Amino acid sequence: MNLKIGVIKGDGIGPEIVTEAMKVLDKVAGVYGHTCDYTQLLMGGASIDVHGVPLTDETIAEAKACDAVLMGSIGGDAKTSPWYKLEPSKRPEAGLLKIRKALNLFANLRPAVLYEELKGACPLKEEITEGGFDMMIMRELTGGLYFGERKTEEIDGVMTAKDSLTYNEEEIRRIAKRGFDIAMKRRKKVTSVDKANVLDSSRLWRKVVEEVAKDYPEVAVENMLVDNCAMQLVKDPKQFDVILTENMFGDILSDEASMVTGSIGMLASASLNETKFGLYEPSGGSAPDIAGKGIANPIATILSAAMMLRFSFDLDKEADAIEAAVAKVLKDGYRTIDIMSEGKTQIGTEEMGNLISENI
Amino acid sequence: MNLKIGVIKGDGIGPEIVTEAMKVLDKVAGVYGHTCDYTQLLMGGASIDVHGVPLTDETIAEAKACDAVLMGSIGGDAKTSPWYKLEPSKRPEAGLLKIRKALNLFANLRPAVLYEELKGACPLKEEITEGGFDMMIMRELTGGLYFGERKTEEIDGVMTAKDSLTYNEEEIRRIAKRGFDIAMKRRKKVTSVDKANVLDSSRLWRKVVEEVAKDYPEVAVENMLVDNCAMQLVKDPKQFDVILTENMFGDILSDEASMVTGSIGMLASASLNETKFGLYEPSGGSAPDIAGKGIANPIATILSAAMMLRFSFDLDKEADAIEAAVAKVLKDGYRTIDIMSEGKTQIGTEEMGNLISENI
Ligand SMILES: CC(C)[C@H](C(=O)O)[C@@H](O)C(=O)O
Ligand SMILES: CC(C)[C@H](C(=O)O)[C@@H](O)C(=O)O
């Protein structure tokens, strides 16, 4: 099989970590008789430097011509990057919002997993995480406050800013279905998170999710208010299987959940549309402070590549091989600095990529 | 001094915990030569039962005639209470939103403190909380998504729900000033939380906060994105002094922070307007599952009464006396069930109130 993959190396540590993921993809392709055909795409700060904008229409067209896109990270240091002197619509993250909308990537999957081997890095006490946890945050990615009309204007001499949060039942239904489909392949539990005691959009969300739930009688479903969910993630993360939520709540809760694992450098993510196409990227940011030092953890990106094989190419065996290789290298005691602990062997970005490759 | 205090006992554990707080208030008043003049006010489920609505205009008028209001908790069990069969605008929480707006309670202060004595209940590992933490969440309470226009309608045959998030510079300025004023009495650090890389309202928020900051040269101020803040609360809560944020973000982050302390039954809150008037209530909910059992922790409500003495009546000595009595009782090893640990003495709601009273 020929895999046509768009590659956005991105900003900060992006180029380093993507290079290792490509190395691993090439290895797995070699072993299983596939070929990877990469198209380099510019986005974020790297695109601003060349084109003056974070994402050009040509890049979007090129991305659409690929089967999937692998991405490093977008953005820089808001305090020091010259990009952050630009108006908001020209900043690196604007490219991220634009590509999500342009490619209709409405379903954002963010696993938050406590790795047994890395329990030491988890900020929670052992009695809470005993036995580990493994949840999937399913975040709606193309609606809500992120894409509503907004306006800042003077009203009676007072500056006033307005954002709007809109969802229609079709947008809710398609993400809910994805959430339940994923739950069927997991532990068959969906926690739908909203703020239905306040928001109209949340009341519609809850209604539609309850309708969709009827088509999945095997799945246990519960509604949880977003403020309560923010508490429960800290109090008892083991209770969750799939968390299904809208865009802004998903942004906040997925980041909280990833920090609760203690190993954000390990967490992959996928953003999918109605087809097999997907954008795959690590959950963490561009970490400009350590860029170019060869110490960033490439595992999240490598696991994102595994998600890509699984979701966009249906290559489950190949994805399993990558995940097994990652597990093996961790078991053998190799760690990048972010997940380092006593008695383990500290290695750099490239060495980590090499070791995972060798284990495939 | 005669303290004219409105009392909303509320739902669930509300009546039990408020009774203990009144007992403590009466004791402190007696010792320091004041009198408490209480006016009982109905709100929430208790008001629905009597008047069919969660808050009547008469109750609002009576509340306004008081110097301050002490409240238990509002709401019931969404799964079983008959109140939750009512349409949203008639449910208990609607009273909460209505009273906030009617009394213009724009500044919601929620302390999140790790009590040295109760470290065992904290979900975070000891190495993270070493030395304790003590932050104050300052949440804007009368604007944003909570009070924007909302509408659910069929558009081209598709049900569509819309909420809106509006802030003007005056609303932002007054809460920011309160935040900085509080910081001046604390460790002089303000973390202003927004989502300025996406929302217009957040960009205006950031601009106004930066303007207000100029009047407080002694206060260190930083901007933090809400998703990052949700992570930092788990990773390193010690970094925070005052967190200043808008209504919805404040709802989520204050609940997360309270759970991070592990002792939500200890956390007070105050909601203030431009005058000395305030509404004081525990941070936790109505806990219908343990209502009437005499086991609820009254300390959060008792500490809310102390906040009332401090903020609405400028009775600092009296507030100190309550706080010292709480600390003493904890030090003596008395615990309600929610904060119980090995080797301590478990007592009920009333006993806890009595002991705190006796220590004043
Ligand atoms: C950079 C930002 C616009 C983005 C978001 O809020 O979606 C990021 O936080 C994320 O979660 O991918
Ligand atoms: C009950 C609900 C409307 C309320 C809110 O969201 O403000 C509560 O969660 C709180 O934080 O006081």
Automatic annotation (TrEMBL), chains A, B:
NAD(+) binds at G285, S286, A287, P288, D289, I290, A291, G292, K293, G294, I295, A296, N297. Its cofactor is Mg(2+); Mn(2+). GO terms for molecular function: 3-isopropylmalate dehydrogenase activity. It comes from the Bacteria. The record marks Y146, K195 as: Important for catalysis. Residues 4-356 form the Isopropylmalate dehydrogenase-like domain. Its EC number is 1.1.1.85. Pfam families: Iso_dh. Binds 1 Mg(2+) or Mn(2+) ion per subunit. Substrate binds at R100, R110, R139, D227. The keyword Metal-binding applies. Pathway: Amino-acid biosynthesis; L-leucine biosynthesis; L-leucine from 3-methyl-2-oxobutanoate: step 3/4. Keywords: Amino-acid biosynthesis, Branched-chain amino acid biosynthesis, Cytoplasm, Leucine biosynthesis, Magnesium, Manganese, Metal-binding, NAD, Oxidoreductase. It catalyses: (2R,3S)-3-isopropylmalate + NAD(+) = 4-methyl-2-oxopentanoate + CO2 + NADH. It is found in: Cytoplasm. Mg(2+) binds at D227, D251, D255. Belongs to the isocitrate and isopropylmalate dehydrogenases family. LeuB type 1 subfamily. Catalyzes the oxidation of 3-carboxy-2-hydroxy-4-methylpentanoate (3-isopropylmalate) to 3-carboxy-4-methyl-2-oxopentanoate. The product decarboxylates to 4-methyl-2 oxopentanoate. Homodimer. This is 3-isopropylmalate dehydrogenase. It comes from Dorea amylophila.
